[in-house]
């Protein structure tokens, strides 16, 4: 499972011109799921995400987590995070899980993120054509892959 985490001052996702979810200060997370991802990947990523100290303290040092600042989450499914670009110019998505595997894992990730953080988790709609808007604060962007836990 692969995440792109962006610290935002605001973010929203719209489908067909209608706002599905929006947040103010918090984290906008793109989630890419592979066929061999498990509940263990979810648990590790949720713990890591909730404890990431990427928000400024009173001295301007990134020393606070999303839980510390009472921020919210916007979680968007993003199969293209597993694009393979080694050959040719058209990305291959063979490593991305299909909906039968990805939807339950995506929903489990969202649920666990809410349970562990106690914070609101806005979402997009799996498989929909979504328009995501955000103001990246910093900018701060973190990549985390559950298969690379070094």
From TrEMBL:
HAMAP family, per the entry: Deacylase_Dtd
Keyword Ligase listed: no
PANTHER family with a match to the protein in the record: D-AMINOACYL-TRNA DEACYLASE 1, D-TYROSYL-TRNA TYR DEACYLASE
Localisation per UniProt entry: Cytoplasm
Molecular function per GO: D-tyrosyl-tRNA(Tyr) deacylase activity; Gly-tRNA(Ala) deacylase activity; Ser(Gly)-tRNA(Ala) hydrolase activity; tRNA binding
Protein name per Swiss-Prot or TrEMBL: D-aminoacyl-tRNA deacylase
Any GO BP annotation: D-amino acid catabolic process
SUPFAM superfamilies: DTD-like
InterPro entries referenced in this protein's UniProt entry, alphabetically: Daa-tRNA_deacyls_DTD, DTD-like_sf
Chief subcellular location: cytoplasm
Keywords: Cytoplasm, Hydrolase, RNA-binding, tRNA-binding
Top-level enzyme category: hydrolase
GO cellular component, one term: cytoplasm
Function comment: An aminoacyl-tRNA editing enzyme that deacylates mischarged D-aminoacyl-tRNAs. Also deacylates mischarged glycyl-tRNA(Ala), protecting cells against glycine mischarging by AlaRS. Acts via tRNA-based rather than protein-based catalysis; rejects L-amino acids rather than detecting D-amino acids in the active site. By recycling D-aminoacyl-tRNA to D-amino acids and free tRNA molecules, this enzyme counteracts the toxicity associated with the formation of D-aminoacyl-tRNA entities in vivo and helps enforce protein L-homochirality.
Stored Pfam families: Tyr_Deacylase (PF02580)
Motif (Gly-cisPro motif, important for rejection of L-amino acids): 138-139
Subunit (UniProt): Homodimer.
Classification of source organism: Bacteria, Pseudomonadati, Bacteroidota, Bacteroidia, Marinilabiliales
Family statement drawn from the similarity comment of this UniProt entry: Belongs to the DTD family.
Known catalytic reactions: a D-aminoacyl-tRNA + H2O = a tRNA + a D-alpha-amino acid + H(+); glycyl-tRNA(Ala) + H2O = tRNA(Ala) + glycine + H(+)
Notes on the domains: A Gly-cisPro motif from one monomer fits into the active site of the other monomer to allow specific chiral rejection of L-amino acids.
EC numbers, comma separated: 3.1.1.96, 3.1.1.-
């Amino acid at each position: 499972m692969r995440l792109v985490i962006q610290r935002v001052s605001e973010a929203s996702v719209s489908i067909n011109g209608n706002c599905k979810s929006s947040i103010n200060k918090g984290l906008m997370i793109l989630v890419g799921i592979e066929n061999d991802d498990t509940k263990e990947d979810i648990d590790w990523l949720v713990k890591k995400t909730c404890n990431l100290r990427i928000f400024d303290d009173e001295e301007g040092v990134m020393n606070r987590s999303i839980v510390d600042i009472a921020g919210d989450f916007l979680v968007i499914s993003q199969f293209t995070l597993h694009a393979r670009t080694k050959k040719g110019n058209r990305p291959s998505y063979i490593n991305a899980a299909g909906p039968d595997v990805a939807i339950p894992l995506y929903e489990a990730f969202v649920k666990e993120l809410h349970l562990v953080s106690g914070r609101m988790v806005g979402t997009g709609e799996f498989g929909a054509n979504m328009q995501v808007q955000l103001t990246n604060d910093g900018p701060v962007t973190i990549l985390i892959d559950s298969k690379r836990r070094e």
